[in-house]
Amino acid sequence: MKTYTLPNEKGHFGMFGGRFVPETLMKAILELEQEYENAKKDFNFHTEKDRLLKEYVGRETPLYLAENLSKYAGGANIYLKREDLNHTGAHKINNAIGQALLAVRMGKRKIVAETGAGQHGVATATVCALLNLDCIIFMGEEDIKRQALNVFRMELLGATVVSVSSGSATLKDAVNEALRYWVANVDDTHYLLGSVMGPHPFPTMVRDFQSVIGKETKEEFILRNGCLPDAIVACIGGGSNAMGIFYPFIKDKSVSLYGVEAAGQGIDTNFHAASLTKGKPGVLHGSLMYLLQNDDGQIQEAHSISAGLDYPGVGPEHSYLKDSSRAKYYAITDDEALESFQLLSRLEGIIPALESAHAIAFAVKLASEMEETQNIVVCLSGRGDKDVDAVKTRMEKGKENESFGTIL
Amino acid sequence: MNRLEQSFELLNENDGKAFVPYLMAGDGGLECLVDRLLLLEKFGATAIEVGVPFSDPVADGPIIQNAGIRALKSRTTLKGIITELAKARELVTIPIILMTYLNPIYAYGIGAFVQDIQNAGVDGCIIPDLPIEEEDMLVPQLAEAQIELIRLVTPATPLERIKQIAGRGKGFLYMVTVKGITGTRNLFQHDLNQFLRAVKELSPIPVLAGFGISSQEQINELTKYCDGVVVGSRIVELFEKNNLSEMEILMSIFNKNHK
Ligand SMILES: Cc1ncc(COP(=O)(O)O)c(C=O)c1O
């Protein structure tokens, strides 16, 4: 793959992507596309974005060789790209800053966004506080329960959090509600979409804003090792941290790209979020992509212990990379992710987000099958503070069940 | 000329206005669909919009969302709907327009879908998440089957684009009256009339207003500027409450006007 220029001018990645939105939104997304093209060529836009990423977010983030984890895996060296050390604790802020600056450029001072784990909501609320923008966040009722602390954080930051109880009351339904809100308020509101999904230009724009992860990784890795890594591993919800770290490596054929989806209770159960592994191409939220759906084209609910991966679709570019075999996609279960959550905490003193723990679990397996001279970089997309409560509850419940088992 | 064009021709000759009710197929059980279509024809419908339930209807408000949930709970499928419409076609003479989000069609298979709705005597399709930029995936097949794609314009659509959209169709242009989702509303934006007038001027085909229309007063006001109305949420609501007399009164509006 010498050149890679996707998407085309219609926002298509092969058969995937596109702009499948109600007519009411077409003007707004065409304007957004135009404005983004202008901003890309505007030196001042980049200067301001890069200044905020450095001074406010704390970039660049470290590339850390996790020696204890590597030793434990017994094979390739595992490096961690520390997106957990960003302000607000995840990669989501890279995109939030880019889009918020774009909104300001367009004269839109109201922001609407969806959130699953609450990380994108917190990142958006944070940037809105910084730039003095109105902020309204839609969040599934179920996720509000799972991520109560993040709800409080968003409110502290001045955002209005709206609970969504329709459907499965998780991320997919929050996107539906945010889209409905945008349709009704499109004149003065920008939809700050949190992942590489939705109608063109969102998948491309979010990828570009997140590509700072891959750019830094590549430069730093070459500087230290004089070569490219052999493999990149990232977890996939909508796919933004993965696209961000993959993109600068797409043309480097020697670098294997691995995306890790949530297998929930197992990909052979009805309780998982493995859209690429188990889904079929379909249209949702503005884009043609792999989707969990039944034979009648009704969207199925996704299930994962991690709210940030609990989405039945996946970005169109990942759908394309899967079909073209440039990237490979695997799934990790709730139990495996929980184990890695504890493993990384104990071995490296780093508590990962449950989302990122999926990537760690896969990387440990992968490393054990590779040579000691080889290198893997894992995108550690976020920190685990937000998950500590849920993991505690889950572990206590697990113990109860165990003792229950021995009594029986 | 297909059934849709014929209906509008006839309407035009009599100086009449179109009343197109929307119902959710499978709401109340799929077995009552044919009877409901016959009833709407008897009440004076010009054509009928038949909604296909979808798990994630982003263009719809709570009334149609809930009707969709009820329909899905009673296991309504696109296949089942098409089977019922084929039965209905023996009895119902007015045009039938299928309103569905794209994914149920995509999952069905575009070729199979077009063939099956053609055999069932469907006259048109409305697909709210298929803007003109993406319609090439479906329109050539529909055209070959002589099924009209009914396109939407909204108050957020620039005039130049309205012209472009209106120029593509042969059935009618669906003019969304609000920047927003479906549902009954008491008030429209104050400058709506101006928008309606502009659309009517630009469109070579009949223009029907829809979204948020629920009362005779609204219908009288809107049809000063366009060729008819689509009434969705209000009809769905009246079916759910089984308030058929109210429905008959609402739908008799144009009979009264022209007596
Ligand atoms: C820490 C973290 N990682 C990953 C994700 C998944 O999103 P994406 O696949 O877009 O990176 C989320 C989403 O909330 C997250 O909070």
TrEMBL record, chain A:
<dbReference type="InterPro" id="IPR036052">
    <property type="entry name" value="TrpB-like_PALP_sf"/>
</dbReference>
<keyword id="KW-0028">Amino-acid biosynthesis</keyword>
<dbReference type="InterPro" id="IPR006653">
    <property type="entry name" value="Trp_synth_b_CS"/>
</dbReference>
<keyword id="KW-0456">Lyase</keyword>
<dbReference type="GO" id="GO:0004834">
    <property type="term" value="F:tryptophan synthase activity"/>
</dbReference>
<feature type="domain" description="Tryptophan synthase beta chain-like PALP">
    <location>
        <begin position="58"/>
        <end position="382"/>
    </location>
</feature>
<dbReference type="InterPro" id="IPR006654">
    <property type="entry name" value="Trp_synth_beta"/>
</dbReference>
<comment type="pathway">
    <text>Amino-acid biosynthesis; L-tryptophan biosynthesis; L-tryptophan from chorismate: step 5/5.</text>
</comment>
<dbReference type="Pfam" id="PF00291">
    <property type="entry name" value="PALP"/>
</dbReference>
<keyword id="KW-0663">Pyridoxal phosphate</keyword>
<feature type="modified residue" description="N6-(pyridoxal phosphate)lysine">
    <location>
        <position position="92"/>
    </location>
</feature>
<dbReference type="InterPro" id="IPR023026">
    <property type="entry name" value="Trp_synth_beta/beta-like"/>
</dbReference>
<dbReference type="InterPro" id="IPR001926">
    <property type="entry name" value="TrpB-like_PALP"/>
</dbReference>
<protein>
    <recommendedName>
        <fullName>Tryptophan synthase beta chain</fullName>
        <ecNumber>4.2.1.20</ecNumber>
    </recommendedName>
</protein>
<comment type="subunit">
    <text>Tetramer of two alpha and two beta chains.</text>
</comment>
<comment type="similarity">
    <text>Belongs to the TrpB family.</text>
</comment>
<keyword id="KW-0822">Tryptophan biosynthesis</keyword>
<comment type="function">
    <text>The beta subunit is responsible for the synthesis of L-tryptophan from indole and L-serine.</text>
</comment>
<keyword id="KW-0057">Aromatic amino acid biosynthesis</keyword>
UniProtKB/TrEMBL annotation, chain B:
<comment type="similarity">
    <text>Belongs to the TrpA family.</text>
</comment>
<keyword id="KW-0057">Aromatic amino acid biosynthesis</keyword>
<keyword id="KW-0028">Amino-acid biosynthesis</keyword>
<keyword id="KW-0822">Tryptophan biosynthesis</keyword>
<dbReference type="GO" id="GO:0004834">
    <property type="term" value="F:tryptophan synthase activity"/>
</dbReference>
<feature type="active site" description="Proton acceptor">
    <location>
        <position position="60"/>
    </location>
</feature>
<feature type="active site" description="Proton acceptor">
    <location>
        <position position="49"/>
    </location>
</feature>
<dbReference type="InterPro" id="IPR013785">
    <property type="entry name" value="Aldolase_TIM"/>
</dbReference>
<comment type="subunit">
    <text>Tetramer of two alpha and two beta chains.</text>
</comment>
<dbReference type="InterPro" id="IPR002028">
    <property type="entry name" value="Trp_synthase_suA"/>
</dbReference>
<dbReference type="InterPro" id="IPR018204">
    <property type="entry name" value="Trp_synthase_alpha_AS"/>
</dbReference>
<protein>
    <recommendedName>
        <fullName>Tryptophan synthase alpha chain</fullName>
        <ecNumber>4.2.1.20</ecNumber>
    </recommendedName>
</protein>
<comment type="function">
    <text>The alpha subunit is responsible for the aldol cleavage of indoleglycerol phosphate to indole and glyceraldehyde 3-phosphate.</text>
</comment>
<keyword id="KW-0456">Lyase</keyword>
<dbReference type="Pfam" id="PF00290">
    <property type="entry name" value="Trp_syntA"/>
</dbReference>
<dbReference type="InterPro" id="IPR011060">
    <property type="entry name" value="RibuloseP-bd_barrel"/>
</dbReference>
<comment type="pathway">
    <text>Amino-acid biosynthesis; L-tryptophan biosynthesis; L-tryptophan from chorismate: step 5/5.</text>
</comment>
